[in-house]
């Protein structure tokens, strides 16, 4: 957790991370207790739209800038953005004192219905059952392969050290299904990071 200039000694749940490899360069700033202000540029317009959903519906102040080898494949950019956002979440949460920790919900978007359950457990795990046919047309230009959503969530859950379940109950429209999953995780996170007291929510005394 970091404190900005002029802010009080009250803890500010915010983190900033950068990651640079031969494939991508990512910069992320995340403020958990924000107002849903989002700035995102990844070179993949549909993915930008999904990250915007994550920030706005999560109530986070989120800035994401990514430059990746999109001429090769979008996979590296999507995965690495997930890694850095997850790292920021873990850092901003600190020792997780007082958080609700668990959250679950069903989120509808027209004909799509997505089930999300998560635990800010400190134990990375992803259970993801949102199938798409291998020949499903990508979204946006350059195209975002909807199967990359799973890679994003796996990277996010691993780097953020959380248990995450995402399942499709209903849905036919690819855009609706993917967007409902991002909105669903965002809304669950918004609930799970909420503070209710000061104790760490674990019988072990740590998460």
Set out the fold topology.
Layout: E1 14-20, E2 24-31, E3 38-41, H1 45-58, E4 61-68, H2 75-93, E5 102-109, E6 112-119, E7 125-129, H3 148-160, E8 163-170, H4 174-192
Parallel strand pairs: 3-4, 7-8
Antiparallel strand pairs: 1-2, 2-4, 5-6, 6-8
Helix pairs in contact: 1-4, 2-3
Describe it:
The chain is an alpha/beta fold and about 210 residues long. It has a single domain (about 15-190), classed as Imidazole glycerol phosphate dehydratase, domain 1 (Ribosomal Protein S5, domain 2, 2-Layer Sandwich), CATH 3.30.230. It contains four helices and eight strands, in the order E-E-E-H-E-H-E-E-E-H-E-H. Strands 1-2-4-3 form a four-stranded mixed β-sheet, covered by helices on one side. Helix 3 (about 150-160) links the parallel strand 7 (about 125-130) and strand 8 (about 165-170). Helix 1 (about 45-60) runs parallel beside helix 4. The longest helix has 19 residues, at about 75-95. The radius of gyration is 17 Å and the shape is globular.
- Which fold name is given in CATH as the topology? Ribosomal Protein S5, domain 2
What's the quaternary structure here?
single chain
**Series of H and E elements:** EEEHEHEEEHEH
Radius of gyration: 17 Å
Supply the CATH superfamily name: Imidazole glycerol phosphate dehydratase, domain 1
Strand content: 25-35%
Class from helix and strand fractions:
alpha/beta
CATH class: Alpha Beta
Structure summary, number of beta strands:
8
* Percent helix: 25-40%
Query: How would you sum up the global shape?
Result: globular
Strand order of the largest sheet: 1-2-4-3
- Low-confidence stretches at least 5 residues in length (pLDDT < 50)? 2-9
CATH architecture: 2-Layer Sandwich
Count of spatially separate domains: 1
Mean pLDDT: 94
Distance between the termini: 16 Å
- Note the total helix count: 4
